[in-house]
Design brief:
Elements lengths: L3 E7 L6 H12 L5 E7 L10 H6 L4 E3 L9 H18 L3 E5 L1 H13 L4 E6 L10 H15 L4 E4 L2 H9 L8 E3 L6 H5 L5 H8 L7 E5 L8 H14 L4 E5 L5 H10 L6 E5 L4 H5 L4 E4 L8 H9 L3 E4 L15 E3 L4 H12 L2 H15 L4 H18 L5
Parallel strand pairs: 1-2, 1-4, 2-3, 4-5, 5-6, 6-7, 8-9, 8-11, 9-10, 11-12, 12-13
Helix pairs in contact: 3-4, 4-5, 9-10, 9-13, 12-14
């Protein structure tokens, strides 16, 4: 039967929430209705890559060498030209873009290629408070331009829509909120025993463990997380700390760990794909991010039944209700983050209550639900434009 041809375009296939959502959306769309593929740039980095996972799932993948994360006028122009030609040749019915660079170039190219339906997902804007004013203005201007070329903006949190509208990006009716999803069962039922994983990490069976999962990058504020860990270590001397992930700030993190005297207490695991099993070893999950869309790792921690302490940023509040299924603190305040962690470690009853409520809340963020909402949006836009496969 004829199928709708869908292209998902993203700047980098690194280990990250936006990339995983693009991958799973492509993989789980009904294959009897859609012929879905991915186009991405070649860059990966210390965060790790999921190119191998895309290929292992049998998803058609195109790597465009000119599509790079950094602003590069020559490469960006070449990428725009090649994207336009690629989309025109592919005769796509739908182009769905992700991330800032691929989102801007991809929407422009799709419009010039005559693609009927163009959708962009905002996984958190590329501009933020504290950014250099010239860079922030440039990103906002480019987002306004790209918005003229697309039919809908999917946001993973309502606050992302509010931030976009506040700087003049699009109109309210073009935004649609579709929360990210995950395989809830996979995180609720780890395949390795908690004590066995602790033993593998060299952590005493009875030691309180505070952990997190995320890139060692400025957005995630890992140095704030480590300073919070130092606060916890003073109050709970037996505590251990596990940071799962890697990134450009690893040297700075290692230096700070040594400077804080935490070398025997903090474990930097590097890149790991057994996140459900690692989450099961945590007594408290702590997120120190300065900005986010809706962080997928928060949903993973909830599904794993780990009590969450997080900075109050963007879409976090759409998953965490303070005092009900988690604890929220201001971003950029590691002392407050540390004190909130200490309070949970010293109040096991409250921690258990938050964890139980978190498991229940995680049920609202399943992958099938997310993909069904995206499918419904595709069908709505195709019908509006009278597009046939």
């Amino acid at each position: 039967m004829p199928r709708f041809r869908v292209l998902h375009s993203i700047t980098r296939l690194i280990v990250g929430g936006a990339q995983e959502l693009a991958l799973y959306t492509t993989a789980l769309l009904d294959p009897t209705r859609y012929e879905a593929s991915i186009l991405a740039g070649p860059q990966t980095g210390p965060e790790g890559e999921i190119i191998s996972e895309v290929r292992a799932l049998g998803i058609p993948l195109t790597i465009l060498p000119e599509l790079v994360r950094e602003i590069s006028p020559i490469k960006d122009l070449l990428a725009l030209v090649r994207l336009t030609r690629f989309m025109r040749r592919g005769r796509y019915h739908i182009v769905h873009t992700h991330s800032s660079k691929a989102g801007i170039l991809g929407r422009l190219a799709a419009r010039w290629a005559g693609v009927p339906v163009i959708v962009h997902t905002v996984h958190g804007w590329g501009f933020y408070q504290g950014q250099h004013p010239a860079v922030r203005t440039l990103y906002i201007t480019l987002e306004r331009l790209a918005d003229r070329c697309c039919d809908r903006l999917i946001v993973v949190s309502r606050l992302n829509a509010e931030k976009g509208l506040a700087v003049g990006i699009s109109r309210p009716e073009k935004y649609v909120t579709i929360h990210g999803g995950l395989d809830v069962t996979r995180y609720a039922q780890p395949t390795v025993d908690r004590l066995a994983m602790r033993a593998a990490l060299g952590i005493p069976a009875t030691a309180p463990v505070v952990g997190t999962v995320g890139r060692l990058s400025p957005q995630k504020a890992p140095l704030d997380w480590l300073r919070a860990a130092a606060t916890v270590a003073q109050a709970v001397p037996e505590a251990r700390f596990v940071y799962v992930g890697d990134g450009p700030l690893r040297p700075a993190a290692e230096a700070l760990i040594a400077g804080l005297g935490l070398s025997e207490r903090v474990i930097l695991t590097g890149l790991r794909r057994d996140v459900p099993e690692l989450l099961a070893t945590f007594d408290v999950f702590a997120l120190s991010s300065l900005w986010e869309g809706l962080p997928l790792v928060i949903l993973q921690a909830l599904a794993a039944g780990v009590p969450v302490v997080s900075t109050r940023v963007d879409g976090v509040e759409e998953a965490i209700t303070a005092g009900v299924n988690g604890v929220l603190v201001p971003p950029g305040q590691p002392q407050a983050l540390g004190e909130a962690i200490i309070a949970l470690l010293q109040d096991p009853k409250q921690a258990r209550q938050l964890a139980a409520a978190g498991r229940e809340r995680a049920q609202d963020f399943s992958l099938p639900r997310m993909v069904a909402q995206i499918d419904a949006l595709y069908q709505e836009l195709l019908a509006q434009k009278g597009v046939k496969p």
